[in-house]
C-alpha cells in the first residue's frame, strides 16, 4: 500500500523489493511459522484481490450490521 499519488516508478520499485523479500528463504520460513504463505504479484493483482474480498465480505458485514468503532 502507498498513497494514491505515489509516482509509478516508486510503486514499481517497492513492488519489486516486496516480491524479492517474499521470495527469500528467511521470509518464507518466518511466514510458514505463522501459518501464512507468501503471495507476491503486481499492484494490479493486489487491487483485484482487494476488490474480490470487498465483494465477498460486503453482504456479510451489512447483514450483521457490523460497524468499526
List the helices and strands and how they pair.
Elements (H helix, E strand, L loop, with lengths): L7 H16 L1 H9 L9 H22 L5
Could you describe the largest sheet, including whether it forms a barrel?
Answer: none
Work out the number of β strands. Answer: 0
Morphology? extended
Q: Number of DSSP helices?
A: 3
Structural class: mainly alpha
Helix-residue proportion? 55-70%
Rg from C-alpha positions?
16 Å
pLDDT average, as an integer? 95
Poorly predicted ranges: none
SSE order, one letter for each helix or strand: HHH
Q: How much strand?
A: under 5%
In angstroms, what separates the terminal alpha carbons?
Answer: 23 Å
What does this structure look like?
The chain is mostly helical. It is built from 3 helices and no strands. The protein has helices at residues 8-23, 25-33, 43-64. The model has no long low-confidence stretch (mean pLDDT 95).
